[in-house]
Specification:
- The chain has 448 residues and is an alpha/beta fold.
- A six-stranded parallel beta sheet has the order 4-3-8-7-5-6, with helices on both faces. A two-stranded antiparallel ribbon has the order 1-2. A two-stranded antiparallel ribbon has the order 9-10.
- It is 50% helix and 13% strand.
- The longest helix is centred in the middle third of the chain and has 35 residues, at 250-284.
- Strand 9 (290-296) and strand 10 (302-308) form a beta hairpin.
- It has helices at 19-27, 40-48, 50-58, 67-74, 86-100, 113-124, 143-152, 166-174, 189-193, 202-206, 210-217, 219-245, 250-284, 315-322, 343-350, 358-364, 377-381, 400-403, 411-424, 427-443; strands at 6-9, 12-15, 33-38, 61-64, 103-108, 129-134, 157-161, 182-185, 290-296, 302-308, 368-370, 396-398.
- It contains 20 helices and twelve strands.
- The two termini are 42 Å apart.
């Protein structure tokens, strides 16, 4: 994949390049790529929506859109060489696609808007191939048919205008099923080019003040986004710049030292056992020894968690059909008689041995020995507001929930326990919970 200079803001790597250079990277070769635009509003939404953060982390290219990102960069002594505004990028994108013989599929916005946007694209670049258009109002059960239609059209580029954060989450969840070489979330771009929403005069756009125009023509709808959102974003930008200069507290350093020591000793001590487990997994069923899965960690950041594989290879494909059989109240799925679990897997789960590879996650800094268990993105998306507090702590291998009954503890009580730990965490509390973990492992209560 073509490398572009990037600036790190809000734990995201954002492209720092000229338009032509960025488009060259997006459209070069036949490799599949995903792109998203980021502006101040996007960052405000991401700060409160972990599933959106997860989707942005999965994108190959994040493009800076608006003066807010430029100001955030300046707070850190950096500068974007160009504002890659989505609507302005539409013109060179259409022309370059036409020159390369690439087709575009327009998905999103209201009925007829995608078609009008495609007609505007053909006026910009008469040789452009329009693979198809479709409005963005559809139910979840229609997704498979829509994806089949997009693939059947032979589209090389898919522009998705479903709004933030829906479009980027939709892309992240379905990218592996789309054959197009580039899939990009474009927000309100179709509305602008279809003439549904008027753009600011060039003078305001050049000065980075297009938001004033948007607020002037839609004051009620844009009040929250700009009048409240802009100061909110600047506070976040200042905190992000300050955090990069911040020195860890004594408690944070002590906790990290405990994690490094504990994970290192654990890996050395359990190495022979882990080798035996790996051999048993390979002998019982086909598939990899380790199971890798995206989880949501501290601050809503996505990372890849490691576990010993305790299920058959098609477990994820069969999960949806088993959701109604959950033995646990709440949004987290658990089943005592899960048919996807292998024989060796049941033994591993009984004594929590399937979690041993997470010692690598702890050593890498994605997890801690003690903390809330890392949740799945779809679970975090369904969290009630009070549950988001558990994301303030680094996820752990063990914690209050694990030593108190694990899967026998309901979702609401688990959230209460995790939030209580996050508010009062300390090295001494961690040591006490580690000691209690050995009792929980040997009793096996709630482990399945």
């Amino acid at each position: 994949m073509t490398s572009l200079d990037k600036i790190s803001l809000f734990s995201l790597d954002i492209v720092n390049a000229k338009t032509e250079e960025a488009l060259g990277a997006l459209l070069k070769g036949r490799a599949r790529r995903t792109a998203a635009f980021l502006n101040a509003h996007c960052m405000n939404v991401a700060a409160k929506t972990p599933i959106y953060q997860w989707a942005l982390k999965k994108a190959d290219y994040l493009l800076p859109d608006g003066s807010g990102l430029q100001l955030a960069a300046k707070l850190q002594g950096k500068r974007f060489v160009e504002n890659l505004n989505g609507t302005d990028l539409f013109v060179p994108l259409c022309r370059k696609a036409a020159a390369l013989g690439l087709s575009i599929y327009f998905l999103g916005s209201a009925q007829g808007v995608a078609r009008k946007a495609s007609e505007a694209a053909r006026k910009i670049a008469p040789a452009l191939k329009v693979a198809g258009t479709r409005h963005g109002y559809f139910y979840a059960e229609e997704e498979d048919r829509i994806i089949d239609e997009i693939n059947a059209s032979g589209a090389d580029i898919v522009l998705v205008a479903l709004g933030v954060p829906r479009q980027d989450v939709w892309i992240a969840r379905n990218r592996h099923r789309l054959n197009a070489r580039l899939v990009m979330g474009v927000g309100a771009q179709f509305d602008f080019w279809a003439g549904r929403v008027s753009r600011a005069p060039r003078m305001l756009r050049s000065a980075g003040l297009e938001w004033i125009w948007r607020f002037a023509i839609e004051p009620r709808r844009m009040f929250r986004r700009y009048i409240i959102g802009n100061p909110e974003f600047m506070m976040r930008a200042w905190q992000d710049a300050r955090a990069k200069r911040a020195v860890p507290t004594a408690d944070e350093r002590a906790k990290r030292a405990l994690d490094l020591f504990g994970s290192s000793m654990g890996l050395l001590f359990f190495a022979p056992l882990m080798l035996m487990i790996a051999t048993a997994i390979k002998l019982e069923s086909r598939g990899p020894v380790f199971f890798r899965q995206t989880r949501i960690g501290q601050g809503g950041q996505a990372f890849t968690v490691l576990k010993f594989r305790s299920m058959y290879r098609d477990a994820e494909a069969r999960r949806a059909a088993l959701l109604e059989q959950s033995d646990r109240a709440g949004i987290c799925f658990k089943s005592k008689n899960d048919p996807r679990v292998t024989k060796i897997g049941r033994l591993l789960r009984r004594f929590s041995l399937d979690e041993l590879p997470q010692l690598f996650n702890i050593w890498n800094g994605d997890m801690s020995i003690v903390g809330p268990r890392p949740a799945l993105p779809q679970e975090v998306e369904a969290y009630p507001p009070q549950a988001l507090e558990r994301l303030m702590g680094k996820p752990g291998l063990t914690g209050l929930w694990q030593v108190s009954g694990r899967a026998e503890i309901g979702f609401n009580k688990m959230i209460h326990m995790d939030s209580a730990y996050v508010r009062s965490r300390s090295v001494f509390l961690d040591i006490a919970l580690i000691a209690l973990t050995f009792r929980a492992v040997f009793t096996g209560r709630g482990a399945y």
